[in-house]
Task: inverse folding
């Protein structure tokens, strides 16, 4: 069978894979994206696009389309601990960009896919497809892949954007050792209320609870909650929402009463296990990883999708230098790891410190960092934290 030569094979088409495909595609490279799921995936809970992620989309010319697809510009978040206001994060003061954007990750991903489909015939998007066989020319250097539809591809570089259970990471022989938290996250959508329309409000409770209220789309409230596993199960078992409303009132201020009143049915809450890791090795041979395949961060930071987008921006420009003959592939991939590993690790550690200190007001307040929360990437901030 004829082997199809391509520049980059991207395994997995979440937000990281989609942005990387767009970035490489607009530079003219031949890209194939292999995604096991169908084009439309379920919502995954990520809604906060912060300045560091916005910057990458802006550099790629995708910011106007992000806003046109319903991205909602916001400036402030109030953070409460045990019902008392602990901090107001005002992006106009903490970051040059001055705002963040609320947009479900899945809507953002579909927008990027539309841009690829309408502009970039050199990028092939293959849904409901998997790699079934891999041939190596030398250790860690993939020369050919066979796909479940029978196609054979001959890629120069293989990128694993395939999430927490990454197959490319397994091909690289790298362990993840992801620590899974005892408090899963649940999220659901309710009608928009005045308090939610006004401002994002994040509530933390010393009994290891979390509730975050913010708007999505034009007329909806997203409520993200997190409680110790058994407690969450008990609260959600009462499908009338009464048990959950009562528990929320123990640490959510009266400013959000109108939003709590909307919680009258718990059956739509979707649960997601959450974990924390930043693996040591991001690449080997002609394989490289990005996004949740290399790191997962506690969602209290609201930065996993941002980190995946930033990884994609960084990797695409280094691969461009490689394809232009300016640097070798090992140099490009080493530079990628050198730039991204400390940032990803810093955010993962920051999220872990926050997640481990809910029970202690002083400790949580000391760990909370406005700049890191706002996706500041100055290395001095990570060192100081
Ligand atoms: C509750 C919750 C709330 C969150 N909130 C935020 C937030 O507000 N802001 C934020 O920035 N981040 C947030 N995150 C994190 C964010 O959702 C993720 O970090 C981000 O979506 C990861 O993107 P990714 O592209 O790396 O991986 P994924 O989205 O996991 O994509 C991986 C893709 O690879 C595919 N795949 C896997 N294996 C294979 C295979 N063998 N072959 C082919 N395809 C494969 C999968 O089907 C999937 O489509 C949150 C996470 C959770 C759990």
Result:
């Amino acid at each position: 069978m004829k082997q199809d030569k391509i520049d980059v094979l991207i395994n997995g088409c979440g937000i990281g894979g989609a942005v990387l495909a767009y970035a490489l595609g607009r530079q003219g490279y031949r890209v194939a994206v292999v995604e096991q799921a169908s084009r439309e995936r379920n919502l995954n809970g990520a809604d906060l696009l912060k300045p560091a992620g916005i910057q990458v989309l802006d550099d790629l010319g995708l910011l106007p389309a992000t806003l046109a697809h319903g991205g909602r510009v916001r400036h402030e978040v109030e953070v409460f601990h045990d019902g008392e206001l602990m901090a107001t994060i005002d992006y106009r003061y903490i970051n040059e960009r001055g705002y963040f954007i609320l947009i479900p990750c899945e809507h953002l991903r579909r927008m990027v896919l539309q841009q690829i489909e309408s502009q970039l015939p050199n990028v092939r998007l293959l849904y409901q497809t998997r790699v079934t066989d891999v041939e190596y020319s030398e250790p860690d250097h993939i020369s050919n892949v066979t796909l479940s539809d029978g196609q054979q591809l001959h890629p120069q570089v293989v990128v694993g954007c395939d999430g927490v259970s990454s197959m490319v990471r397994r091909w690289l022989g790298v362990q993840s050792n992801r620590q899974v938290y005892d408090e899963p996250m649940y999220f659901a959508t309710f009608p928009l209320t005045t308090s939610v329309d006004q401002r994002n409000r994040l509530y933390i409770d010393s009994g290891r609870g979390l509730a975050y209220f913010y708007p999505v789309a034009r007329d909806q409230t997203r409520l993200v909650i997190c409680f110790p596993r058994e407690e969450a199960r008990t609260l959600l078992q009462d499908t009338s929402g009464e048990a959950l409303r009562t528990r929320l009132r123990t640490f959510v201020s009266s400013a959000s009463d109108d939003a709590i009143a909307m919680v009258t049915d718990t059956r739509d809450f979707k649960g997601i296990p959450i974990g924390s890791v930043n693996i040591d090795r991001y690449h080997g041979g002609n394989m490289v990883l990005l996004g949740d395949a290399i790191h997962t961060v506690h969602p209290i930071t609201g930065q996993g999708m941002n980190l995946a987008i930033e990884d994609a921006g960084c990797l695409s420009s280094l691969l461009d230098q490689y394809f232009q003959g300016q640097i070798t592939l090992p140099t490009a991939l080493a530079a990628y790891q050198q730039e991204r590993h400390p940032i990803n690790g810093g955010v993962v550690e920051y999220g872990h410190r926050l997640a481990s200190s809910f029970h202690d007001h002083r400790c949580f307040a000391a760990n909370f960092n406005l700049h890191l929360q706002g996706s500041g990437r100055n290395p001095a901030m990570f060192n100081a934290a």
